[in-house]
């Protein structure tokens, strides 16, 4: 099935080949980002969260995802991009990062794109709100430029405070 | 195509282990003088299935031992032999050996091959009974009873015989009987077993030349003595003739051949080695073929046999399921409960007149869902009996080893605890029980001197108390010695004062390394590994408490939280947020009067409840919530209690009480201070469960932030 999908999608890019990586493209404010599609479990609408007292403001709280408690992170607040509005168009990307499930609020999800290795350029040392440690690079597709995020690394970072740091 | 055998191995090991445990349980419970046939059959079945399984997997060593065990068991359950305590001991030993062999195969543990051989020998000799030349006669009478042995010695010197007579005389009353053809015969009445006689005689006589046989001390015992059927091989004294007759009586009508009868009567007068052996073989053949009819006329035999052939009434009725499957089931049912609650909520607003059928169905769904949830939750729960049942054996062995008399009682074996916790409580409990027998309960003499019964009582109890399960190990031994513990603590350089409360003193024995020093009798031993016990229990979120009174005994009380997937919770509201308080901590709730709320130097408020001042915890401040009320006299306070500390939690409103499914926050997020977990409410939303114990601990500190440090 994924083969079929990559073929359909490869129609978008002239140089795309079957060995390229697939990325889910989403927007935060005016910027377009991409994450490895394999880390994405599902995409949902935003629903009421249960606030967790005394947690950082970008952690909106927890929701019930078919019986499991999933924390929801609002990337717009975390990276000060765009206005955090919550309406029927607000999208939550549910990520599965090495067994842990995390929801990520973004402004919108656009599409799934396939990028060949040569379409991925190294990220400059400056320029994005993300620490370049968490970047895979910049993906170019026609006129679009995607900031490719190593979501695994980002979500596991102490910065996000999603995972208990091991006691020293 | 290859089949992965390892999975079948695993099943076999599990089953074998279960079978052995079952066997042990039955053996310990068996009434030796009047064994229940059903029990014997169950033991036999267990042995048989282990034998079958081990043969299938080519574990020949297991097969061999179980085979011997099985044949002996078979003879007993067929009524060909009477069960004696010696048999039970041998079976228990065999069970241990089988277990160690099983572990050997399973984990590569080392197996004591000598012990294996010993047990096989023992079983074999028991099973062959008196047909072996130097068979060990079974102790026919219960402990304390006297049996009569006939000891036949080879030709010895006068002095040696005299010496032997004196030595044996120490065991009981001895009589020198008529010597035949230079052999010497003693009749000994003793409470000791044949082993002791063997031991004494073996100094002078080659064991092979020695014949010890058991004569009957009392007629009334006859019925019990199944091996009486082998009595023809026992040379009878002339004086015993009458008794002998009683013995053979059942045979007479059955094997009504003159030769047999004559054999039985006259055999004593031809005690020659070769001849005897030949006749033995002959008689053994006869005995084998003729036994069933013989049994049919012997008292009780027919009945026993009939029972033995009855089909098994109860088979083991459990199936083996992986824990993850059960957990998955629990999760799914949790989902179902939530969905059902949603449906109930949605239909609640419908017009009952128009939608009567729908509403009826929904309420039926509600009932069924609850039942289903309850049954599913109970799968993970196991009775404490699972733990308790392994102790009688340990107590029995340990008490025997230490020459103590211990009566073991359990209470609340049906109390249920989560499987995960059950497994982790075994080690600490084992340790405590050992300690109690080793160091708590005194030897009979000391106990009698102290005016107590000569047997000590060790009790294990389990009960639910609020949201906790309390497991107690109680002995009526000497109790802890306060002075010794204090002295020891000082010697080890701990900063202790003499004014410590008893409770604090007892806690000292949990200090790591407290007792690793020289043995100071009853005190020091108690500490060996006690720190480990405490650590294990703390790791389970529990607590250990000791109550001890010198001369009257010690109780070690373990309290474990029922950190199960389900708990009774009280939902409370602050502003728009809903939190859950575990009901176990909730004492009461009330609306305080304005004058009962007092401020203490701007640090915080206290509230007066029935003459007691309790710190007021404003949840809206702690969790930074916009609440409806900020004045306690407008909202409600919930009085919480944990570890003997009380506090009043100020909330807006109580919503209700319900069973909740506890979900872990940490599986996808991190630990949150003040929150112990989360649950899913009827509307599909998430509510957080307040960590009451942590909240109350923080009341000691002034600042509310301390909860989150």
Automatic annotation (TrEMBL), chain A:
InterPro entries: CheW (IPR039315), CheW-like_dom_sf (IPR036061), CheW-lke_dom (IPR002545)
Keywords, ordered alphabetically: Cytoplasm
Location relative to the cell: Cytoplasm
Gene3D superfamilies for this protein: CheA-289, Domain 4, SH3 Domains
Keyword Cytoplasm in record: yes
Domain named CheW-like: residues: 20-160
Principal location: cytoplasm
PANTHER family documented for this protein: CHEMOTAXIS PROTEIN CHEW (PTHR22617:SF45), CHEMOTAXIS SENSOR HISTIDINE KINASE-RELATED (PTHR22617)
Protein name: Chemotaxis protein CheW
Organism name: Herbaspirillum rhizosphaerae
